[in-house]
UniProtKB/TrEMBL annotation:
FG-GAP repeats lie at residues 23-80, 89-149. It comes from the Eukaryota. SMART domains: Int_alpha (SM00191), VWA (SM00327). This is ITA11 protein.
Amino acid sequence: LSFPAKSFPFFPGFGDSFNIDTKRPQIIPGSREAFFGYTVQQHDIGGKKWLVVGAPYESNGQQKTGDVYKCPVPSDGHGNCTKLNLGRVTLSNVSERKDNMRLGLSLATNPRDSSFLACSPLWSHECGSSYYTTGMCSRVNSNFRFSRTVAPALQRCQTYMDIIIVLDGSNSIYPWVEVQHFLINILKKFYIGPGQIQVGVVQYGEDVVHEFHLNDYRSVKDVVAAASHIEQRGGTETRTAYGIEFARSEAFRKGGRKGAKRVMIVITDGESHDSPDLEKVIEDSERDNVTRYAVAVSE
């Protein structure tokens, strides 16, 4: 099919020509279910020609993420395209929702450096009990290597917190199983995950120990399982000021994240043997922008 420029004599300078070969077409097969061919871009690397083909319903594992293929031109017609596996790209410190994100629904090339963007307009992330669909793109270099993610509409969650629980495990705490159940009920209410809440636990009596660090577990299930195995360490003294200072100076540094809100929750029966030191450690916590809560437990 040809449209020569001379076919438009009344519009000089506005004519353009292109040809479509209807007799010897190159057919590049792909999955109909994956919507292979929904988007197509030409790609040139050192004179070698390729087609970049979007398949927004392509599956990666159990998720229908979508993906992008590279197909050499000319094609031998035997489906020699290669999936770039961009659907497996993840963002760190974000609770992603990648299923049905439609990667490859949008493709854009940059002729200056032969790179291209493959976008997932329905990519979303979790913040608390809500999901925000902000979209995400993957930048791919001229040699088809993934370069970086582009997510300009992504915003940090309000649940981006590092929480340290300072747990009184001295002899005055009884029965321990009730305190443990109380702790687990608190943990179940947290939105724990990448880009959201991290939790660490320290237990104190006469001494203070790490039960687990902020970055040890990344889900509510795992944190609750770890908390269910915390045993009471005992101690004839209840050094609450020491526990608070340990949490401030040590625990927040073990897996703490830059920019995360710091929260400290002290669970105790209220009897402290180092109460003269409390004013100083509270001032230090205030200086470090640590938000503090105290929970009193009793028989």
